[in-house]
UniProtKB/TrEMBL annotation:
Protein name in the entry: NADP-dependent oxidoreductase domain-containing protein
Lineage: Eukaryota, Fungi, Dikarya, Basidiomycota, Agaricomycotina
Keyword terms of this UniProt record: NADP
Keyword NADP: yes
UniProt xrefs under PANTHER family: NADH-SPECIFIC METHYLGLYOXAL REDUCTASE-RELATED, NADP-DEPENDENT OXIDOREDUCTASE DOMAIN-CONTAINING PROTEIN-RELATED
Length: 199
């Protein structure tokens, strides 16, 4: 019987690093969190959509990014993107090339996870490519310059109430008029570990 104090074995892959929450207890993330709920037809009566076995296999066999090309071509022909969306897509493509991936989705997820602490996006998908892109985001480490570039292409509207109280970088006049504050340093987000990136 192994000792409970021995370090857990290294993960077999980047996904295994996150999927197996407790190696000694065998606790796994639910398939629902990995997008598996979209496959099958058990929930069709509740309006959750339907994918029969043949469609599910076709989905799982899809490869080489053809779906992204088709959707991109459709969006371009139907002019479904506005100018801001085009600028953001171009910036994501530029950063994707810099980090060595073709997936702008993986770059967008990596940006979100590395922008602030305690952000754990749950992203579904109906294709294996979506799952692969989500996993690929775990290995992407963006530099401060790349994050600044992504944020510089279009103005960001944080919405209410953030546009009134700010993003936490400075105190608003209503606060500073009533008291003096000492600013705590911002928490840093978790970046991909070297072990994760090398597997």
């Amino acid at each position: 019987m192994p000792s409970p104090f021995e370090p857990c074995p290294p993960p077999e892959s980047a996904l295994a690093r996150y999927r197996l929450l407790s190696p000694t207890a065998g606790v796994h993330v639910s398939p629902i969190q990995l997008g598996g709920m979209s496959i099958g037809d058990q929930w069709v009566e509740l309006g959750m959509g339907s994918m029969d076995k043949e469609s599910s296999f076709k989905l799982l066999d899809a490869q080489n990014g053809s779906s992204e090309r088709i959707i991109g071509e459709w969006a371009e022909k139907r002019r479904r993107r506005n100018e801001k969306e085009k600028l953001v897509c171009a910036a994501l493509e530029k950063v994707a090339a810099e980090v060595g991936t073709q997936s702008v989705t993986a770059v967008a997820i990596a940006y979100l996870m590395q922008k602030t602490p305690y952000v754990f996006p749950i992203i579904g998908g109906r294709k294996v490519e979506h799952l692969i892109q989500n996993i690929e985001a775990l290995d992407i480490s963006l530099s401060d310059e790349q994050i600044k570039h992504l944020e510089s292409v279009v103005p960001f509207d944080p919405g209410f109430p953030a546009y009134i109280i700010g993003a936490g970088m400075h105190y608003i006049p209503e606060f500073t008029a009533t008291a003096n504050f000492d600013k705590m340093p911002a928490l840093q987000p978790i970046r991909p570990s070297l072990k994760s990136a090398s597997t």
